[in-house]
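Reference record
================
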Amino acid sequence: MKWTATGTWTLVARDLERLEVGRVLEEEPLWRHTSFRIGGPAAVFLEPRGEAEMVRALDWLSSRGIPLVILGLGTNLLVSDRGVRAVVVSSVRSLKAVTFSGFRIRAGAGVGLVRLARLAQAKGLSGLEFAVSIPGTLGGALVMNAGAHGSAMAAVVRRVTVWQPLKGAETLDSAAFEFDYRHSRFQKSPEMVALAAELWLEPGDPAAIQARMAHFLEYRLHTQPVGEPNAGSVFKNPAPLFAGQLIDSVGAKGWREGDAEVSTVHANFIVNRGRARAIEVLTLMRRIRRAVYQAYHVLLRPEIRWVGPPEGGAGTSWENLWYAAGEGLTEPSA
């Protein structure tokens, strides 16, 4: 079946409603579900009620070859203005359980990182303090190996429960996920869906943990555009350099395309000043990357993730900002 016609998606929505797995919406604007406040409609938007309903929905969609996208809090995403011709499955309501067993936490992938860090602090468990300054869900943090203040998810994750087509749900050790700087196996295996994770922390003094968290939050408040719609760090740091410093040094703070603007607080953030479109953010990212490359021969790679149809032709990739080989910037020769 061709998953493009509006009538076809209506049939999918009706079938999902009959499954009774959760709330189903058609042509739901995704800007309502992203921190950037940018994005066209999802053909179908599904909010499963719980983990069991999530797995049932995933099994059903997979068995019929229906394209799907998993969405948490949408904090590191740039969604196409054209939207997504797929079933967008929200994890926020379905994967929110948190249980403690000694120094171990099992948390659903839809749990917010900030909430998880605060729950750990209340139990006198240390190791998640860095996460208090990272908006988004545990699932998104696993995909990106999110980190801050010298730590990252790889340091605390021990097992992850995932769903995969034909396999269903299974629990794997953290070594299976190839965690690296802003990278995990999830990025190479987009069909794999995080359901929950087991984290191992260390006992600590709740007051000392709270003090560290307060310090991290204060730092974020003064160094990032808190309160303005954005998707977090736009580009990965090209170790040992920092993307923000490189972008700032080429005078990019305040650059603007439509309502998309390079933050004047932190140059590696782009903020939505009103009604910014994805194409404006993309244009601004290309302009930034070209300026940095021309100045330093350093090629910045996107940290935020694209959701939607490609903006380029054959042979293009998001990693290259939808430029085809030979048309965009290239790595400098050794």
In short: Residues 3 and 9 are 7 Å apart (CA to CA). The chain has eight helices and 20 strands. Helices lie at 6-19, 51-63, 113-122, 138-144, 185-188, 206-223, 243-249, 278-296.
